[in-house]
Amino acid sequence: MSNLTEVNFDGIVGPSHNYAGLSLGNIASANHKGSASHPRAAALQGLAKMRGNLERFGHQGFLLPLPRPNSALLEELGTGSDLPRPLLAAAWSASSMWTANAATVSPAPDTSDGRCHFTPANLVTMLHRGQEWRDTQAQLKLAFADTDHFAVHDAVPPTFGDEGAANHMRLCESHASEGVEVFVYGKTGGAFPARQHEQASRAVARLHGLAPDKCVFIEQNPDAIAAGAFHNDVVAVANESVIFAHEHAFADRQGAYNAMRAAFPALQVVEVPDSAVSLAEAIRTYLFNAQLVTRASGGMALIVPEECRKSASVWAYCEAMLATNGPIREVIPVDVKQSMANGGGPACLRLRVVCDPSAVDPRFLLTEAKADAIEACIAAHWPEQIDPADLGSDTLAKTIIAARQSLLETLDLQALG
């Protein structure tokens, strides 16, 4: 276990990135429905974030865009002139960029067989996401093919909605030590669906061979879901012994912290009161949809969207937090505006995997040279702009397919074609 470290695998934003407004309960997605998107800028912004993390932490992975438009889905829906636009748009969605929803990951120190386990999220609540898991699983099986170190499962049966790591946190003394896994589920969200089912979370824990006394199951606050926190990672994030959360993140606030402390006594809670940052402002700026990471120099850094710096209340809270010299010692804003406009911040864009990097297929690990090659491919082939009305165009479809194929060739990953 001595070679285990946390590697973030970010989704490369696909060439079909668009604002069709398909995600009920996602306020940003709804607010930008019908706007023109900029796939090239989106992908370059995501790559810049990856470069920054590679420089800071020495390791960074990535997952590739899925095949779009999804001709198999269109065939299943029955193509024709009367196909509703939202169904057409679903087949063009680039939502796999948000790899926090790709899978739930349990590191080797937590599992009964000493392997790192992945369960792809079924994402059944939304059509545009529910089409993803088998293609995602194919990438996971390729990237983590070493069965001595990794196990990749099928998705949980679709009766139970599973949204992956966006509703999962891990508490530990260090990434390489045994941890406690926290699963957050929803029951109701007013007008919006509660996407994570409790039984899906419990099934994942069983599939991964987790000890029952090392699992905590917590209900998300229905008011948070109703306000637009469609995943727990919009209102809470954890790293090692620290949880950073909004006051209204959990249905039973004190009960949630008590349950976590009972399983992990070393828990440190950094809670943001609603009086300092309202729930609405936390969701608008995605303060909690951040990467909370351990610095080599000690303490933790919070990688937040640039929108946080532009919010008076959020930035005032961040500055006050840093002044306390608590566990979070640095706040780093990054520009992911194109992703934010569709409802995904820095945390949405990454899947956290505690592993020995030497056991991972190196084609999925970023280097500076590889980042340069990806950047050149994006600059040459990604569309500059897409209007939702363009979806369905044969010309645009050919451009998107060719762009992805060029990326596969650049990375020697034609097997995913």
Describe this structure in a few short sentences:
It is built from 15 helices and 15 strands.
Notes on the structure:
The protein is of the alpha/beta class and 417 residues long. The chain has a single domain (5-416), classed as 5-stranded Propeller (L-arginine/glycine Amidinotransferase, Chain A). Helices cover 33% and strands 18% of the residues. It is built from 15 helices and 15 strands. The strands form five sheets. The chain has a three-stranded mixed beta sheet with strand order 2-1-15, covered by helices on one side. The chain has a three-stranded mixed beta sheet with strand order 3-4-5. The chain has a three-stranded mixed beta sheet with strand order 6-7-8, with helices on both faces. The longest helix is centred in the first third of the chain and has 19 residues, at 39-57. It starts with a strand and ends in a 7-residue tail after the last helix.
